[in-house]
Amino acid sequence: MDGAHGEDRVLPADYEIPETDEALLAECDVHVFRASGPGGQSVNTTDSAVRLVHRPTGVTVVCRRERSQLRNKTECVRRLRARLEALGRTRTPRVPTRPPVAARRRRVESKVRRARVKRMRRPPQTDE
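Given the sequence above, the corresponding structure tokens read:
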């Protein structure tokens, strides 16, 4: 992964996610801007969309769903916390498994049956 969208990011080893939303918000740069999309005049005149940039990790979260800036900020903090917790989890690597002997035997038997059926479709051999 190239990291363009933060897929391969991990939390720094010494970083702990703050317990309170206020402490988490203090670690962020808050940008407010006008939301686009439906909503008419109420959307076009108020800066209700919120973008949070978490300074320690560089994770960015945007919320522009609600008309209220405060509700959007609360939703942004909730999303940021979820994203940081996901970054903190370590993925367990996939363990490749071998198919059981019985499954391999069934697969080979079905291929043999299929080949027999296909051989029967051929025109008969004529000896001249």
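Strands lie at 28-33, 49-54, 60-63. Try to locate this feature in the token string yourself.
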